[in-house]
Design goal:
By secondary structure, this protein is of the alpha/beta class. It is built from twelve helices and ten strands. Strands 1, 2, 3, 4, 5, 6, 7, 8, 9 and 10 form a ten-stranded mixed beta sheet that branches. Helix 2 (50-66) crosses helix 10 (285-291) and helix 9 crosses helix 12 (313-321). The longest helix has 31 residues, at 2-32. The protein is globular, with a radius of gyration of 24 Å.
Length: 323
């Protein structure tokens, strides 16, 4: 009986050892596909904007795939997002290329170059949507003089390009009454009559503008291509694009300025982590496009063109493999 008991115990011990070895193999395979970091916080923008909608979906994909704590963080957008990365408070962020250009050069809202940020991809264009009401009498950018104008959250990417676009038309903040309002607040201001016009720069469609168009007779103010071409001589991130007909019930396409968006990461993230994050981002473009149509304009081919910040080595490794 003692021999039988010893044999039984031996079998149990061998089984436990084999199970432990098997568990280690499985864990090893999982770690190869995992991340060094346990947290991937994505700085986005206003809760109704494309940044936040796409960022929420992307965070869910990272959480489900890598078993990390990934979540979006609603912010005042581009300038704040760059500063959050600089301070080590987030790992990834959506920003506009004009603000990113200022950050790497230490100009505009940045007193010195920001070295803690690296680009992962060029994204979709942000369209400058200057919204007013049909009876406002505002037809051109020059007509904004003397009006109450929402220019986005203070120091947001919207506010930076609104200021630059106005300056390109010879208009300063002294010529208008400025309100620093985000997307939803600007839409409410137009609806209540508290403001005459608003800059809402984002991918198309902007949810706040779309909702506003259902209850208010709105009008999109056009920006002449020749004016954009002139402004782009000093600020090359501005390009001329059209808001397609029927985006917000508009009968005709509306010419306006646009700025490319960028997805950036902390330069402190490891090469392998950013490689994995980049790879999954492109593998899930269809899912991101289902969350917001702006993401359907992102392509692997164009993501590497027109980058304005140093590309993270992990992202570059992924791009090199696709050639």
């Amino acid at each position: 009986m003692k021999r039988m008991a010893l044999l039984f115990v031996s079998v149990l011990l061998i089984g436990a050892v084999l199970a432990a070895c098997g568990g280690n193999d499985s864990g090893g395979n999982a770690s190869e596909d995992g991340l060094d970091t346990n947290i991937v916080t994505i700085a986005t923008g206003g809760s109704s904007g494309p940044y936040h909608i796409i960022g929420t979906t992307l965070a869910n994909e990272y959480t489900n795939t890598f078993d990390v704590n990934s979540k979006p963080q609603s912010t005042g957008a581009s300038v704040e997002n760059i500063n959050l990365i600089k301070e080590g408070k987030v790992e990834m962020a959506f920003v506009m290329s004009d603000v990113l250009t200022d950050a790497v050069n230490g100009t505009g809202s940045f007193s010195e170059p920001v070295t803690e940020v690296a680009q992962m991809a060029r994204l979709y264009p942000n369209y400058v949507q200057i919204i007013t009401t049909a009876n406002s009498g505002i037809e051109t950018v020059e007509d904004l003089v003397g009006k109450r104008v929402a220019v986005g959250d203070q120091n947001s990417g919207v506010e930076v390009n609104a200021r630059n676009l106005l300056a390109g038309h010879g208009i300063t903040y002294d010529d208008i009454t400025v309100d620093y309002l985000g997307y939803a607040e600007a839409a409410d201001g137009l609806k209540s009559g508290a403001i005459d016009a608003a800059f809402l720069t984002s991918g198309l469609p902007n949810a706040s503008v779309l909702e506003l168009s259902k209850t208010l007779d709105i009008k999109l103010v056009s920006v002449k291509p020749e004016n954009i071409e002139k402004i782009a001589q000093d600020q090359p991130y501005f390009v001329s694009l059209e808001i397609p007909a029927d985006t917000y019930g508009n009968a005709e396409p509306i010419p306006t300025a646009a700025i490319m968006n960028a997805l950036v990461v902390s330069s402190d993230l490891s090469e392998d982590d950013v490689y994995q994050l980049t790879k999954l981002f492109f593998e899930k473009l269809d899912v991101l496009g289902n969350s917001h149509q702006a993401a359907t304009e992102v392509t692997l081919e164009l993501a590497q063109e027109g980058t304005v910040a140093p590309v993270h080595p992990g992202a570059q490794k992924y791009y090199d493999e696709q050639k």
